[in-house]
Structure formats: C-alpha cells, structure tokens
Design a protein that fits this description.
The chain is an alpha/beta fold. It has 8 helices and 7 strands; from the N terminus they run βαβαβαβαβαβαααβ. Helix 1 packs across helix 8 and helix 3 packs parallel to helix 4.
Length: 258
Amino acid sequence: MGLLDDRIVLVNGGSQGVGAAVARAAVREGAVVAVSGRRAEPGEALVAELTEGGGTAMYVRADLAEAEQAKASVARVVEAYGRIDCLVNSAGLTSRGTLLDTTPELFDQHIAINLRAPFFAMQAAVADMVRRGEPGTVVNVITSSAHGGQPFLAPYVAAKAGLIGLTRNAAHAHRWDRIRINGLNIGWTATEGEDATQRAFHGAGDDWREQAAARLPMGRLGRPDEIADFVVLLLSDRSGVVTGSVIDWDQNVLGGLD
C-alpha cells in the first residue's frame, strides 16, 4: 500500500523543480497525478516520464497568473477523474525587488503567482471536496523567507507571508469538513529555477552551488526529492489530524543567533 493509493492529486506549478519532485513522489506512492504549468514542453515530458514508469498522470496547461486558469486547473482534474483529493500549490515567482525599486507591475506579478493563484486553486478544490462531503488535503509550498527575507525579496516576501496567513485561515475554516491544509516554509533548494535566478540576478557562475553549500550548516542545499517526501507525508493519512501548520523546512533556525 502506498501512502497516496487511489488519491487524485493536482500539483500546480508541477512541471519542474519541487513541483515535479512532488509529482514523482506522489505517483510512486500510488496517486493519480495531474501537473499544471504554463509551458507545455516540460509538463508533457514529465507526464511521459511518469506514465512510462507505470503511473497515471496528465498535464494541464495553465497560466496560474490568471485566477480563472488557476480555478480551471482544478476543474480539468475533476472533469477527467471525477474528483480531487489533494492539492499542492508549488508555483512560485522569485524575481527580485526591494522596497524602493519594486514597481506596481512587479508587485502585482508576485501577488498573482505567489498568493492569488493558491487562493483560487484552493477555492476550487475545497469546493469540490465540500460538495462531495469527503475529506481532502492541501499543501502550500511557501518559503522560509516569508519570516522576513533579504531586502531584495520585498514583493516575494509580501506575497508569501500572505500565503502563510491564508493557509491558517483556510485550515481553520474547513477543519470541520475534515479538509486539512498545511504549509511548508522551504529553505534554499537546488532547483532549475534557482539556478536560473542565481545566474540572472546575482551573476552566479557554474560553481554557485558549491559556494552556497560552503556557507550552509549542513554543507549542501536542500534537495527537491527530500521536500517532496515531506509533502507526500502531509498529503497522506500518516500526518494524522495535523492542519493549519506551517512548518519550517530549513537548516537555519528562526530566531537563533550566533
């Protein structure tokens, strides 16, 4: 028996990085998985990988910056499989901006991807669960930077901190529906997106991971597959009655000082 046997799981932002790792882990644990993303090529390639390995998966093309498409991603899953049991919101925009140089346009982009998309995807998923009178689970992939973050992450922090509040609010609102909603504040992680960000915004070279690892307590960055295993646990019955928790998944300790 897998942890997610017979569960229908949608991973929004699931075509690469942490989302793709969650999709792989969920299929390995017996789930039927849908992954959404704006770019078809990586999404379809991931689905081909999952199905060739014996899993059941589908790709849903969605620009999550559009609220209606975030809701439609859930509707596509319900149309295809009759229901949705689990939702993972893993899409994230990490483009840089400080309090002084962030434009209204950049701010709105962060709100759209990092806060509004999870809000309306959860709205659609929870509505299906409530309509059927069945339990379900949601995991929002957030960030340890939501506690404050670096000065160049101002709009990102604003949006992700809002997602922390939303996670707790929705969990409280739907606990009597047996819908468990939790969040994961992940730390610095080695993903394709992080590689692109380091090169685009910080002039990083090919050895940036090694340089970053040397500055971290465990001597390495976090890995998407590790995070994915934790997300699957939170989606599954093995996490028991836990809801409304936002867990720091990081090697730096909030509030700790040297």
